[in-house]
Design a protein that fits this description.
The complex is a heterodimer of chains A (297) and B (127).
Chain A: H1 3-43, H2 46-51, E1 55-56, E2 61-62, H3 65-96, H4 99-114, H5 117-140, H6 150-175, H7 178-186, H8 191-220, H9 223-228, H10 246-253, H11 263-294
Antiparallel strand pairs in A: 1-2
Helix pairs in contact in A: 1-11, 3-6, 3-8, 4-6, 5-6, 6-8, 7-8, 8-11, 10-11
Chain B: H1 3-37, H2 43-47, H3 63-90, H4 100-113, H5 116-126
The chains are: A mainly alpha (297), B mainly alpha (127).
């Protein structure tokens, strides 16, 4: 066998091994989380774990509802704040703004994407939390615990999500062909009508992907949220309440108090829940995108 | 004035407002960090390791933390580079040819990575 073919074979096998490793990595994580979390699953019934709001590891009570609700509130609020603002900015940048403005703003948005999440968290503690405590909450007559709470978490998270949604939406809008716009404009439509009825319709799947991407970043974000969200294991009832999202629970408690039976297992169950949600979300998003590509939606 | 013109100007104002929020928040983040951080930054901070009583405000700096970050980043990048080059080549048509394995790998990486590949694939199909 000549040496060229041998080289080819070896390198392709090596690449196959790397691919298999990447593929199995996820399953390895899933299985190891499951096996570490199984002790609590066999002791406490799953509905109790998911829908009980009693959290007292020392008393053997593991209700994850406050944490699940905390995650949903923070992520939901961040999405509600971030989606309209970033979509409008992206549309402005790609449709209305001149080249000068676009060239000036683009590096700023890239910079925003590159800031580590701890820095966002610090900024939240230094700027957002005092603002809510001193200005916003008194103005609205709401009670807060020193300004820490879902609102602070949502604001910080939404700023972290801006660059993702803006840059992807911008790419997608730019990929809509110029002829489509010209046709619509030549029929007498205004620029906004063209955007609303032609450009956005064509770009819808891409914008969907952008929002999914932003949402999934917000969902698993730990550090920045943990620093500003208050970390009180209670089901929140308004945006001024403190919350305790799942990633914050894992980051705060893992490695501590492991002498309490089942505690370690409960924390790993929280990790498993996060992973499962991301998994389901991925599969759903993928199915929608495949359908869009085939032209069903 | 026609309704559609009014609508356009309202949305245009909203867009500019949103853009101001985005740019303003970025400047606020950087501004706050610089404003609080610059006054305490000095050469000793960057060139000395932490000494006894560091957290009580005595001598020393954060050199150990900086070096630690650099080591971690270098090691991680080197390892990831070796693996991912192989994977990237293998996922091309010549080797795996869009088989089930390559689809599984994509999904698995998507999840590990929080959906970035999903987007890249999408944008790839768009152009």
């Amino acid at each position: 066998m000549n040496i060229r073919k041998l080289k080819d074979k070896i390198s392709s096998r090596l690449m196959l091994a790397a691919t298999l490793f990447a593929c199995l990595l996820f399953f390895f994580i899933l299985i190891s989380l499951y096996s570490r979390a199984s002790p609590i699953l066999s002791v406490v019934p799953i509905p109790d774990l998911l829908f009980s709001s009693e959290w007292g590891p020392t008393a053997g009570k593991f209700g994850f509802l406050p944490f699940i609700m905390g995650t949903l509130w923070v992520t939901g609020l961040a999405t509600i704040i971030a989606v309209p603002i970033s979509l409008l900015s992206a549309i402005y940048l790609s449709e209305y703004a001149g080249n000068h403005l676009r060239d000036a703003v683009k590096p700023l948005i890239d910079l925003l994407a590159g800031i580590p999440s701890v820095v966002y968290g610090l900024w939240g503690v230094l700027a957002v939390v005092p603002f809510i405590k001193n200005t916003l909450a008194p103005a609205l007559g709401a009670e807060t615990i020193g300004g820490y709470g879902i609102l602070a978490g949502g604001i910080v998270l939404s700023i972290m999500v801006f660059p993702i949604i803006i840059s992807i939406t911008g790419e997608v809008l730019r990929s809509v062909s110029q002829e489509l716009r010209e046709v619509s404009l030549s029929l007498g439509a205004t620029k906004w009508q063209t955007i609303k009825h032609v450009v956005l319709r064509k770009a819808r799947p891409g914008i969907f992907a952008a929002i999914v991407l932003g949402f999934s970043r917000a969902f698993g974000e730990t550090m920045a949220v943990l620093m500003v969200v208050g970390n009180v294991p209670k089901i929140p009832s308004s945006v001024f309440d403190p919350a305790y999202p799942l990633p914050a629970l894992i980051a705060n408690t893992f490695g501590e108090m492991m002498s309490i039976p089942l505690y370690d297992s409960a924390i790993l169950l929280a990790a498993l829940m996060l992973l499962t949600v991301v998994l389901i979300f991925n599969i759903l998003a993928r199915m929608v995108l495949i359908k869009i590509e085939r032209g069903v939606i | 004035m026609e309704f559609r013109r009014v609508e356009e100007s309202i949305f245009k104002a909203l867009m500019i407002f949103s853009l101001l929020i985005v740019v303003g928040s970025l400047l606020a983040v950087i501004g706050t960090i610089l404003w609080k951080g610059l006054p305490v930054l000095n050469i000793d901070m960057l060139t000395k390791t932490a000494q006894g009583g560091y957290y009580l405000g005595k001598g020393g700096g954060i050199l150990n933390a900086i070096i630690g970050s650099v080591y971690l980043a270098l090691g991680g990048t080197a390892l990831a580079f070796l693996l991912s080059i192989g994977i990237a080549f293998y996922l091309q048509k010549e080797y795996s040819g869009g088989t089930r394995l390559s689809n599984m790998t994509r999904l698995s990486l998507d999840i590990l990575w929080g959906l970035h590949l999903l987007y890249m694939e999408y944008s790839g199909s768009q152009y």
